[in-house]
Write a structure and sequence with these properties.
Keywords: Membrane, Transmembrane, Transmembrane helix. This protein has 112 residues and is mainly α. The chain contains two helices and no strands. It starts with 25 loop residues before the first helix and ends in a 15-residue tail after the last helix.
Amino acid sequence: MNNLLADTINLVNTTGPYQNIYGLRPSAYVQTGINMMLGASGVLAFIYLLMGGMQWITSSGDKDAAEKARKKIMYALVGLSITFSSYALLYIVRILFGVNLVQVVINNIGAP
């Protein structure tokens, strides 16, 4: 009997992207949620700012419409400043205290 040596090549990923589904950390969901909320609030405030600018341009000298546009722009700028302040506060806390509030560590979920 001839014994032959064979070299195997792993062409197909048999484990798939869900290989460690029981090892997911709940903190990953918290981290993703915080990042998504801060990002979405920044994007929405910027869109609101653009809408206020367009309203100001199209007010055509109407004082009431210009005042509404000014308030919309002011609220959008307040929203952007709150969003950027939140990012800055999280960064400062991480530097000063060594606590990363975006990556909250909670115990792993074990396999059943």
